[in-house]
Amino acid sequence: MFRPLLLTVILLLTACEAEVGGDRQSGVSSKATHPADASIEWFDGTIAAAFEAAESEGKPLFLYWGAVWCPPCQEIKYTVFKSQEFIQLTRLFVPAYLDGDTEEAQAWGEKLGVMGYPTMIVFNPRGEEMTRIPGGIDILRYNTVLELSLNQMRSTASLVQIALEDPARLSADEFYQLAYYSWFQDTSAVPEDIDKTALFLGLSMSAPEGELSNRFYMNYLLALAENNASKDAGKDGLHADLAIAKRLEKILSSSSLILASWDSLAYSMEDILALPAIDDAHKAGLAALWASSVFDLRFDESLSKSEKLAGWLPRLQLATRDDQRLAEDLQKLLRAELTSADDATPDSFERQSVIDQIGYIYREAGLVNDAKALLLAELEKSASPYYFMSSLGSLAEKNEDFEQALDWRKSAYESSAGEATRFQWGANYVLAMIRMAPEDHQVIAGQASALLSEFHVSGELFAGRNFRTLKRLNENLRSWQEEQEPETLAFLSEIKRLCDDQKEASLQQQSCLSLLVEDALLAKKLVQAS
Fold first, then answer.
1. Confidence tier at 527 by pLDDT (50, 70, 90)
2. Partners of 28 in the β-ladder
3. E-only strand ranges, 445-492
4. In contact, 218 and 251? CB cutoff 8 Å
5. How does DSSP classify residue 101?
6. What pTM value is reported for the model?
7. Burial of 235 (0-12, 13-18, 19+ CB in 10 A)
8. pLDDT of residue 3
9. What does 401-419 look like in DSSP terms, one character per residue?
10. Nearest-10 crossing angle of helices 385-398, 348-364
């Protein structure tokens, strides 16, 4: 991959100015130019003020949305955000960090169309969204996307329109921007009536051959898998089968192409090979090639600790098909590598990502007891132990040990921190009670009502992830009420009171009232049934 010219210039300027007191044009102090001391200088103020600063200074804005407990967030913090090249590039932006538990964070998340953690968005100085950067790509590619956004980048939404009309009008840089866009976090760039499979296939055919073309093709296959939209009829279907198999063989035979699409190839083998558009005659060979090719690259230095471990996943999926037990020699090698990664990660925050990945891989290998032992040991080391308590609860539930599962869910909620986080973990506890102990009416009703008082500003409950969690909780409580017919459920009356507290005709009040409409329909149904 080419080394971005602007990035090279920035690094040369930094090196040259380090001895003479700083970069006078960029405002980087001499202290900030020393790699040992440099870090991202996040904007100190509200998100609204950050947008104002970007406009007044004529700089693009880089927004990072995350949470302390989120493993992929910690992955980015300990890889991308520690890269000296990335840090120097952020000096040319207004970098803003929005933690999901801070005041008005969820309202901003909703306004910006943010669905999950982590999300990274680049805005131009006017506050218009340019692009979203996905997780799971290597640092050089993060740097390249940031550099492109400094060079009069057009919005991804406008590039999608060009791609739909005439992709030949897209430049090489614009293909790069689209190839490294976070498509599965998209909320506005692709019109709702557009078939993403056709969009990605068209981009793969028009993009420069190699890395970019094949990233689009992998997105095409992922979209097929997600939508179950493959077509397999007659001669055309046979041609599609052969074309897909041939393209995958080409990608999986190239180390550089595998690494360029690691974020899909390491995690999606089974989903893609399950497509009806790939004929059975090719699936076995593709699976073997896929598993061995990704496995052989698991120590590549461009990959982070967690992503190196992901190189095991296709190998494990193939080795444990049809409930096969993992061979002893593979178990031994797996345990040795996972233990080594554990031992090499002393920092409690970085461990959030690495240990989460190790636990996932143990489960994929069928080594559930190893996963449990790992998570139990991590409770004393983790900066966010409640996250791993939830994982222990999931393991216990899968083993049908419902009492232990609910104990872990309750402990996770009680030890969680941050308003949005506590609400999410508390809702998960109530939902677990509904699944595993639906007859415990008093606890479910009481805990559900108590959750509504988690926020010191009630309007936060009706925005972003909080409202999506509340809506899911409300739907499950309605179904539970219909089936269990508890004597009391104060949840609905509490919602009504909170609706009255919201500003008239505000988005928060409208969201709140939408819950009451759903509950009114349930009440009518219950009356009719009685």
1. very low
2. 23
3. none
4. yes
5. T
6. 0.86
7. exposed
8. 35
9. -HHHHHHHHHHHHHH--SH
10. 10
